[in-house]
Design goal:
Largest sheet: 4 strands, antiparallel
Number of helices: 0
CATH superfamily: Immunoglobulins
Number of domains: 1
Shape: globular
CATH architecture: Sandwich
Radius of gyration: 12 Å
Order of helices and strands: EEEEEE
Amino acid sequence: MREGLPFPLGATWDGLGVNFALFSANATKVELCLFDDTGEVELERIELPEYTDEIFHGYLPDAHPGLIYG
């Protein structure tokens, strides 16, 4: 997980990976949960590494559309 960008909000694929950006004025951290293809088994939990102007953000290289996350 790299630091990524605070905008745009949400999950944004750039062809090489996915940037995750989420607003929260009150959270102390945000974790990205990755699931298997069925969406039933959590495979990994990654803390978003950056916080800019109440936006938690991180970039996951090699992630792609269809990735099941929460």
